[in-house]
């Protein structure tokens, strides 16, 4: 009999409406390594184990299989629809007028749901790369962030809420300057910001800004994405599970360093969405936030260990003339490339 974590033991986080959602979720990006079958079986197993938040996206190319297991979960009474919190995301090639609705309808159909709980704009520009492409591939139509173009996508997202197809909308891969440009223009504010967050990349400024605006940070690559695709690897990358501070704390708690990353994430206040298709891993990833918390001192040790090491640099989204991946992230505090 597999282990089941009781719902009342799992901490929750409040969205701006006061509604609470689980403090940890399951990622579903197979990193070009795990196919739809493996990922969807993990979704089934993880919901059985107690997960209720599932992070999906059209570009992960597995929503149809995940839809089959969600149906099974509901039919078998493992969870009720209202207990689940399912996210999806519009991919960069569907930003045109009318395309966000089309993409959302496709995700709804694939996921076999009548509504999505939280629908993200996956990246804040229409720069497209083919799934599985290599790190040097560039699309000549790529261009810098434009607040006007972004808002045309956001208006379509707001319409999805108005039509009852999605309950909340969110942004992903944003920066403080981009948020400052678009937040005043939103009729419906983002409930969450999905961003890269792990001990080696803590983004304190963006994290604090999101929280100050009542936007819940959701942390992707919470374990440092050890299985990420080749295109997202460079020689300088720091492996979180090998950082000496993380290893030492793991030894003290007698747990895997991955679990230290997740405890840190949940205690700091972001919602980590670790990926795993392996039952012992995904069970322990959920269970670890229900027991044996890190001490304040350990939390402080990890805060100080930040390496400012971004793993998902996004270089495949660069536009012709961009200097390097840093241009995507507005490092000098202004929107690189204009932003109008
Ligand atoms: N919004 C965005 O742009 C964006 C970008 C990236 C990711 N995401 C989302 O965030 C999710 C998580 O990110 P990610 O999958 O890249 O990285 P991750 O969750 O940091 O790393 C996942 C990998 O960590 C290992 N792992 C998991 N649990 C473990 C445990 N208990 N002990 C030891 N190793 C463990 C597994 O490696 P092995 O498979 O080798 O065992 C697994 O494949 C994605 O699935 C996706 O839903 C969103």
Automatic annotation (TrEMBL):
Pfam families per record: Aldo_ket_red
Binding of substrate occurs at 122
Q: Name one GO molecular function term.
A: oxidoreductase activity
Enumerate the InterPro entries for this protein. AKR, Aldo/ket_reductase_CS, NAD(P)_OxRdtase_dom_sf, NADP_OxRdtase_dom
| Active-site residues (renumbered) | 60 (proton donor)
Name of the protein described by the UniProt record: Aldehyde oxidoreductase
Q: Where is this site: Lowers pKa of active site Tyr?
A: 89
- Matching Gene3D superfamilies: NADP-dependent oxidoreductase domain
Q: Where is the NADP-dependent oxidoreductase domain?
A: 24-306
